[in-house]
């Protein structure tokens, strides 16, 4: 990240400025505030999208998430955390991607060579495995898919997932086990 | 479910969660090693997932390039989305209030222009029934105009 300090009302380092304050600054006309939010949340959004969308479309869908966020931010009331809101937006954009794509063609029927050209350093075997797993993940119930994405794509700890989903730790681990078991069944 | 089974389930769930933690920390990328068949299968699934999606860190330069591309795309989309002033003014379907206001205005202007002309032409012939004969004509024109506006609005 290039900017370590922002020209803001506070002289805090960027890392210490909360999402809420950045959103307020964005609403007050600071374009730099959006850039900071973007850099902060890009890795998680990008990784989440990477788990469920073909490699060639990951950046496109990620962009759509942030475009939608930018358009909706002025009306963002802060009822939920920005990260949670962005996660919901990401899920909507992924669903929209498959709705649009479903009208054109089945994703799994996309030519392998085309997909491979977007991937550097990946063998066709890895790619096939990834497509296979992505399809299996999409077939899972929402709560199963969510707990897997939170743990693997977003690298959240189980206690963080429990807090986020308003469950206790045991229930979260139980859900995780059932989700992995369901994924295994789909992969067999 | 018996207490023993319940304890066993809790133990499997705890071990599986620990295994996932170790995989995510990069400490367990070789193979599953549980003696329990069910747990072994679940651990293998986690390893499969981890191998298919190795951790990918977006470098600063890539993030910056992505932001540049995002902003360029937004500018392009804004230009496409931005309709001209006249087009938006006459887009009755997206703003019916504006359409209605324009229709009322047009009717008023037409009535103001047409009323004296109609009054004077009929007035010279009869001398008494000028206003009463012009009113139905104006009303007819108003109805025609409203119908025309409605029709054009629907066509758009």
How would you explain this protein's 3D organization?
The complex is a heterodimer of chains A (188) and B (156). Chain A starts with 18 loop residues before the first helix and ends with a helix. Chain A has 9 helices and no strands. Chain A has 2 domains: 95 residues, Orthogonal Bundle (Rna Polymerase Sigma Factor, Chain: A); 66 residues, Arc Repressor Mutant, subunit A. Chain A is globular and about 55 Å long. In chain A, α2 crosses α3, α3 packs across α4 and α7 packs across α9. Chain A is mainly alpha-helical. Chain B is an all-alpha fold. Chain B folds into 3 domains: 50 residues, no CATH class; 27 residues; 66 residues. Helices cover 78% and strands 0% of the residues of chain B. Chain B is built from 6 helices and no strands. The longest helix of chain B is centred in the C-terminal third of the chain and has 31 residues. Chain B is elongated and about 105 Å long. The mean pLDDT of chain B is 77. At the A-B interface, α2, α3, α6, α7 and α9 of A face α1, α2 and α3 of B.
Q: From the coordinates shown, what is the CATH architecture of the largest domain in chain A?
A: Orthogonal Bundle
Determine the strand fraction of chain A and express it as a percent band.
Answer: under 5%
Tell me the count of domains of chain A. Answer: 2
Taken from the alpha-carbon principal axes, the silhouette of chain B is: elongated
Helix content of chain A: 55-70%
Kindly report the average pLDDT value of chain A.
86
**CATH top level assignment of the largest domain in chain A:** Mainly Alpha
Radius of gyration over C-alpha positions of chain A, nearest whole angstrom? 18 Å
Number of helices of chain B: 6
Work out the helicity level of chain B. Answer: over 70%
State mean pLDDT of chain B (0 to 100 scale): 77
Order of helices and strands of chain B: HHHHHH
The poorly predicted ranges of chain A are 1-5
Number of strands of chain B: 0
Shape of chain A: globular
């Amino acid at each position: 990240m290039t900017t370590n300090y922002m020209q803001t009302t506070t002289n805090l380092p960027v890392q210490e400025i909360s999402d809420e304050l950045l959103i307020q600054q964005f609403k007050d006309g600071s374009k730099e505030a959006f850039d900071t939010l973007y850099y902060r949340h890009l890795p998680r959004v990008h990784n989440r999208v990477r788990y469920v969308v073909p490699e060639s479309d990951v950046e496109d869908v990620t962009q759509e998430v942030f475009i939608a966020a930018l358009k909706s931010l002025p009306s963002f009331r802060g009822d939920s955390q920005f990260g949670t809101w962005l996660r919901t937006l990401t899920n909507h954009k992924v669903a929209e991607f498959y709705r649009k794509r479903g009208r054109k063609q089945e994703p799994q029927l996309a030519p392998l060579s085309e997909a491979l050209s977007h991937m550097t350093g990946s063998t066709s075997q890895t790619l096939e495995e990834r497509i296979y797993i992505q399809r299996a993940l999409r077939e899972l119930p929402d709560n199963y898919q969510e707990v897997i994405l939170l743990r693997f794509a977003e690298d959240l700890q189980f206690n963080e997932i429990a807090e986020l989903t308003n469950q206790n730790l045991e229930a979260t681990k139980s859900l995780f086990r059932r989700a992995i078991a369901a994924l295994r069944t789909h992969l067999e | 479910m018996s207490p023993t089974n319940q304890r066993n389930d809790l133990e499997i769930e705890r071990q599986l969660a620990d295994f996932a933690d170790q995989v995510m920390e990069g400490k367990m990328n070789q193979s599953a090693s549980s003696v329990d068949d069910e747990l072994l299968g679940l651990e293998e699934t986690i390893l499969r997932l981890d191998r298919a999606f190795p951790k990918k860190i977006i470098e600063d330069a890539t993030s910056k390039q992505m932001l540049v591309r995002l902003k360029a795309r937004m500018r392009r989309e804004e230009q496409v989305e931005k309709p001209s002033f006249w087009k938006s003014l006459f887009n009755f379907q997206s703003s019916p209030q504006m359409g209605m206001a324009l229709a009322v205005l047009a009717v008023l202007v037409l009535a103001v222009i047409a009323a004296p002309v109609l009054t004077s032409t009929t007035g010279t012939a009869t001398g008494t029934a000028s206003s009463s004969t012009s009113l139905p004509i104006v009303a007819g024109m108003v109805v025609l105009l409203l119908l025309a506006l409605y029709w054009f609005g629907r066509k758009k």
